[in-house]
Amino acid sequence: MKATLTRNNHSVTVPTGIWMGTQCIGASSGQQFPVVDPATEEVLAHVANAGSAEWMKALDLADGVATTWAAFADRKRSEILTALFHKLTQRADDFARVMSFEMGKPFAEAQGEVAYGAEYFRWFAEEAVRSAGRVNSAPAGTGTIVVTREPVGPVLAITPWNFPLAMATRKIAPALAAGCPIVVKPAAETPLTMLLLGEVIAEVFSEFNVPSGVVSIIPTTGAKDLSQELMADARLKKVTFTGSTPVGKTLVRQSADNLQRSSMELGGNAPFVIDEDADLDLVLTCAMQAKMRNGGEACIAANRFIVHEAIAEEFTTRLTHRMSEVRTGHGLDEGTTLGPIITAKQRDAIAELVDDALACGAQLTVGGKKPEGDGFFYPATVLVNVPAQARILHEEIFGPVATVTTFTCLDDAIARANDTEFGLAAYGFTENIHTAQKLAKELKAGMVGINRGAISDPAAPFGGIKQSGFGREGGTEGIEEYQSIKYIALQ
Ligand code: NAD
């Protein structure tokens, strides 16, 4: 069960079955679903469409190996994670190519995602042998308090299409480091990257004699049924999700019956506040990173540029110039710096937000027009003088559209930055240390970049507050999401 994807004389072959542990199998129903190249609208491959029989079998396997996997020495699990880091890195271009095909991102960006995604294996290989408890004497002199950490047990991971590799490795790596088996459900738009990872995992697990079932990868179009059935089973101990806030809320509700642990990485609506003393060269570089990384299809993408009136004109002129240099095309074609949007539906949602802003009185300085022809493309777009009531200031854009509004008083800028139901990322720019401290303290988000446009780091805790969810991925905090705390009272 394989498919070969080819463009510009480069090919990559990917598995198209279900990874039931280390076995790649077809769906018992015989059903498949198509995976489409969003730049051409052509079908890239047909993938096995898992149903109830498959995902319940994956949970049976995970539950069956949970004790054995938890008993693997920490050092052994660390070595396995290190091997995964190296194998993935060796095949970096294959992974990058698959992501450019199925998700659309430019090849160079896809290579960046492979490096970033692989790094979670290396980081958690190091954490696997460092995760510790504590010991202290009871203050009343009644004995000793010993605190240990244990793996929570079988995990379900549901991942989105925007970062098909990294959003999964940041869940798989800490789960494995903690000693948990994991069932992964990739987004139906982009299952191929995960299925290729399944091949790498099967090779490494065979070298280290890891029992089949520690990782299963379940492609399906039946996400709703999968989560309902798996979470109704008390053997599943945790769900970890990256995606939209409404689906996150559904999963939290579903987790109530069995009180499953949950981590939710949900939507964002990041503000990017630029004070009048900011270094505009740095601001422009960071603005392009924060807005255009992944074509704006990122939960930490800067949506709202809130700029001091004194520099707003220069900033807008320079941002418009940089956005007009962006070249749209197939992710695997030379010179492409902006790929397509993932689906026609998602592209239309972006166009609708832009049209609504224009109807409210905003003006375009570049872009804003859906191109003719194949592929779900939308151009790099800048909107200025966006009125407060425009939907685009309140909803996640998830595309290459920047909005610019101005301020004269920093407190007002911060209040507007925080005037959102989301609280994932926020950015602040200034050369003044006091303003920097104020922005760091008062911007209400799980992550704040000060004079930084790229903030993701496997060594840092990624996550949000408010409607952006809870739980952290990466950092020393990331492994704790997969551990239960046990207190032992010693005489
Ligand atoms: P989504 O939340 O619908 O899908 C994310 C994942 O959840 C996919 O694997 C999907 O198959 C699965 N899913 C969907 N419905 C489910 C259900 N009822 N039960 C269990 N799993 C389910 O997101 P989307 O449709 O891909 O994108 C829509 C919006 O979500 C975007 O516009 C963006 O706002 C947001 N989003 C956020 C992130 C992020 O990184 N936080 C990533 C992708 C999308």
From TrEMBL:
InterPro entries on file: Ald_DH/histidinol_DH, Ald_DH_C, Ald_DH_CS_GLU, Ald_DH_N, Aldehyde_DH_dom, Aldehyde_DH_Superfamily
CDD domains: ALDH_F5_SSADH_GabD
MF-aspect GO terms: glutarate-semialdehyde dehydrogenase (NADP+) activity; succinate-semialdehyde dehydrogenase (NADP+) activity
Residue span(s) of domain Aldehyde dehydrogenase: 29-488
S-adenosyl-L-methionine listed as a keyword: no
Its EC number(s): 1.2.1.16, 1.2.1.20, 1.2.1.79
Class of enzymatic activity (EC top level): oxidoreductase
A matching Pfam family: Aldedh
Assigned keywords, A-Z: Oxidoreductase
Entry keyword Zinc: no
Residues the record marks as active site: E265
Recorded family membership: Belongs to the aldehyde dehydrogenase family.
UniProt-recorded name of the protein: Succinate-semialdehyde dehydrogenase/glutarate-semialdehyde dehydrogenase
